[in-house]
Design a protein that fits this description.
Layout lengths: L5 H20 L12 H13 L6 E7 L5 H9 L16 E5 L3 H4 L2 H4 L4 E4 L14 E6 L14 E5 L8 H13 L2 E6 L7 H12 L3 E9 L8 H12 L5 E6 L2 H5 L5 E4 L15 E2 L1 H6 L3 H17 L5 H30 L1
Amino acid sequence: MTSPFHQLSQSLNQLLPPLRQLADDADVLEVPSLAGREWYELLTRKLIPQLGDDSYLIVAVVGGTNIGKSVIFNHLAGFRASATSPLASGTKHATVLLPPGFAATHDLAEVFPGFTIMPWDNAEQSLVDDERHLLFWREREIGDANASDIPDNLLILDTPDVDSVAQVNWERADHIRQAADVLVAVLTQQKYNDAAVKEFFRKAAAEQKKVLIVFNQCLLPEDEEYWPIWVQTFCDETKVEPTALFVAPADRRAAEANQLPFYERPWPPDDTASDIDPAQPRDLMRELSELRFGEIKLQTLSGSLRQLVHPDAGIPSWLRQVQQHANQFGDAAEILATSRLATIN
């Protein structure tokens, strides 16, 4: 059956070549390249790859350094898919857990453009130093703990730190954010108000990504009066409106054993209508599997489209920049021609 986005997908595929041609022609005008512009990255990493006949949801575990992202990812995967350590392990490359058979029916290089796609072999692969943007993939298997709970159209990713000292990791994390539909935002007391973290999530909010917050490494019950303040600050600064919120205790043994409990909390915290049992641990994978996939995909694709046509941040802004540079070169050429005529006379 043809997707309602199929015609739009064809239009965007027709739009891309002339955009690139205009960018090439504008090189002489010294207009900065298209690469790195948020609207262009969304066009090439989100809209064109995902506006086809197929529908799948990309969930990315994201956040700052040494906050337990890989621990959360491993809990979702059901096994140790990504390296973890009591020290900052320094995830440098993305790892994706795919539905069975997904790699045979999809070109992963098209789903994740700009990445060098490699099969997953061990959890430590994501720590290697490599100038390339690597993405390691593995399909879920029957023996995986969560295999039966994960929908067949759900892709789950572990990502590099959004605030790493190596800025290339920021770029890799941005590429994953641009492709994703749902972000599992891992925050801690040390990393909820960091400038790089907030900038990352401001962009996510502008692109209408769904965000589930896991506030990790909490001292419970002592932090129950503090985490709402920390989360409120994060939401005020980023404009993120979380779909759901969970707190996880600071328990290293449980984290390493893939037995960390996640306790759901109402958001806003004064939601008196909530029927959440604060003492009952929740299954994060089951929470993700119960999301309304179609609605989320529509929302995130629409958010990317709005960024594409935004008058101050999208294609119209870039076209004005090209026009301004052309006018400046035209003025300079006219002055030069006038000067030459004056010299000849």
